[in-house]
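Field reference: "sequence" (input) and "structure" (output). Example, Flagellar motor protein MotB:
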Amino acid sequence: MHKHRTATLSRLHLGISCLLLLSACSQSYVVLLAEDDGSLGKVQVTNQQGATILEDNQEAVDLGTEAGKTFTVSAEQIKEDFGAALAASPQKPLSYYLYFEGGGTTLTAESRADVPKIIDEITKRRPAVDISVIGHTDTVGDDQLNAKLSLERAKSVAELFQDAMPDASKVTIDSHGERNLLVPTPDNTAEAKNRRVEVTVR
């Protein structure tokens, strides 16, 4: 199906799915793909023949046929038609939460176990990676001290990734203190999920 043609490709991210467009002299079609986590949106494709709704994974519509007629594109055909475009497209950002014991910069045992996973992702994204590290605290203690503590937490986490980061990497470190609580609480409330650093790898 659709062999031996020169095609132009574009990928449109829809937040919960992606849309791939193949344009060729013999045939042009649009196919809807689920995201890596399986989430899938819905899209309306409109041409001179009318509108067609795509809502299933790998469901496609030929832009030269009547509206409403869809077909399923095999994984093999998607790889053949769009493999190069998919490989070249930017990787999606990944976010992680690392949690801390109370009052300091010591990660919990569970979060220490997550650090190698983040380092592995950083290594995969060579030759350059953009990392955002944001420190947070719970509401126990003074606001200014918590702002300082959350910055210390962010810096301590960033140092864990230092050896894995390519030379062209950019690291942004920020401190939110007890602002932007993950779990809303009154003042002077200990909450483990608020004692965290948020790491985003792009």
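The longest strand covers residues 17-23.
The chain has two domains: 8-88, 94-201.
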